[in-house]
Design a protein that fits this description.
The complex is a heterodimer of chains A (about 230) and B (about 425). Chain A is of the alpha/beta class. Chain A is about 35% helix and about 30% strand. In chain A, the strands form two sheets. Chain A has a six-stranded mixed sheet. Chain B contains 16 helices and ten strands. In chain B, helix 2 packs antiparallel against helix 15. The chains are: A alpha/beta (about 230), B alpha+beta (about 425).
Chain lengths: ~230, ~425
Amino acid sequence: MESKKVIEAKGISKSFYDPILVKVLNDVTFAIHAGEFVSIMGKSGCGKSTLLYILSTMDTQYEGELLLDGTRMKDKSDADLAHVRNEKIGFVFQFHYLLNEFDNLHNVMLPGLKLGKHSKKEIEQKAYEKLKILGIEKEALKYPNQLSGGQKQRVAIARALINDPLIIMGDEPTGNLDKANSDIVFNIFKELAEEYHQSLLIVTHDQDFAANTQRTIIMEDGKILNTKD
Amino acid sequence: MKIGLIAEVSLALLTARLKQTLIAAIGVTFSITMFIALLSFMAGLNDLLDNLILNRTPHVRLYNEILPSPVQPIERSGSYPGAYHFIRHVKPKSELPEIKNSAAIIQALKKDPRVLGFAPKTTLPIFYNVGSINLTGMINGIEVDAENRLFTFQDYVVGGQTNDLKNTPNSIILGIGAAKKMLVQRGDIIQVTTAEGVRFQLKVVGFFQSGIEEIDKVQSYTTLATSRKMLGKPAGYITDLQIKLKDIALAPKAAQEYHHLFGTEAIDIQTANAQFETGSSVRTLISYAVGITLLIVAGFGIYNILNMMIYEKMDSIAILKAMGFSGRDVNAIFITIALTIGLAGGALGLVLGLGLSALIGQIPFNTPSLPTVETYPINYNPNFYIIGAVFSIITTYLAGYLPSRKAGKIDPVDIIRGK
């Protein structure tokens, strides 16, 4: 890979006292390059989600170094980290987390409005584009509770894309979906990676899903067991 | 842009729980309404009660009192320096409580720029002769026009005109309490005896009702000329000079000055009626305390609603934080919600408060002691509205502060992982 590293973890460890010392992550080191579609696999409790939340800057209680786009994330303030998340990271969770008070279009627009780089008109235009990529532009003016589970997840993906993030992070994004919808979502991710060169990091325990990504990181007991290309 | 976005999200959350929000806002509305109505009514009542006394009380009163000589002869002797003198044999002189050189004093007062006006008066103790018994009384000889202008004398005269007093020779406006005892009506002739034993016949042209029974039983009014006639004194004889100043606050200073300048006793309204000010301020204090208690209760309502909203919207808060809203932004969103409830509820409360006070102001209020008052008194002081608005904002801010801080500190990882 000749392209730059969008995210780099250097010896990340994390432990809890519960009530004895439990090491959840143990010296995790890896990097993701621009345009890569990477999945993290592992059994429940192996620390893969914990790792994702550390990489996403939402969890700041860890040892080691995290570099996002070449910048150190340690010692940044809450507001600075919020700004980093807003600008550089798009999230897709197992649950869609759409705000029922806003229509789908507005849900997609929210992170863009928060960033405030473009005018409201431009953001709306962009939101329509993203919804179009995901094939749900017709649902733009409906409210989240009027959509099916698969459609909601696609709106959530459009929301993750609105600020053209450096990387999209997913925590079991297909975990709540049936096979057909899972395939749709997976194909969207694949299309994003191949056509738009979007970097993606997806945590999953779905074997088929992981097998189709460019690279799979397999974790066990807080350590990276191996990496499959 | 950022403020607009926070406002937008706040509004969305507000409308999502419209019912609870409305209830919280109604709490604020109710308390502000009651606050305004209570204060307006209380202040109106205070003004009424104060005016009952203050309107008729001169700001400065000049008079003479029968006093012993302040310097006893033994004190003039140099033989006993530093000794305590207990020989006090020079008693007060026999003299009438006349203000001496009143013409010159009146000239000086006319030139004083602080003086709004003054009314000369003579007072003489008398007996009302009712059949075989005598009732003690007091006749005030007044200048009718000056009394009307400065002390709203006409307001307290029932069943008759003050002008009749001026136009009918040897007439009297009789205290209503005394009139009831004497069974007299307008146009009757009554007989009084002065302290010197002179009998006099006076025609009743009206009745005086102050609202204070003890006064109404005793006080009656004639013109200055009639009173001088009864005393057998020449024109220019007066015992009291009632002065009204342009600024009541200057009264104590002016009283001291006149005391030295004119050599008479001078008492100011603040000294003479200290208890009224105390009463007013205590009543005002109680109204404020009740009003603020109401607001605090409303504040707890807002606190509850916000807490509930935060528990319900935990997911929304988590995702907002995940997608780049900082703790401070989330805090601002919930403070905005609290302030919106406070502002909307408060504004409505101010309007309803005005309405309620206007309504109270229409309720008939007839009391024999206050002949000029027909409805409940209301004071439409804009300050109450300003205080109400400021307090509604402060209490809602305080009520929103803790829940908002909690919302700002929510860890999105805890929520998202908990699913």
